[in-house]
Amino acid sequence: MPILLTFILHFVKTVCMKAIHSFAMATAIIFLSVDASIPTDPTSSNARRGPHVSSPSRTEIDISKSVIAWRGTKLLGTGEHQGTLKFLRGHIESDAGLIVGGTLLADMNSIRVTDIPPDDEEPIRNLTNHLNADFETSTYPVASFNISSTKGLRICGDLTIKTKMKPVCLDLQKIDDHFSTTLTIKRSGFGIGEKGSWLEKRLVDDEIYLTINIWLKR
Question: What is the pLDDT of residue 201?
Answer without folding.
Answer: 86
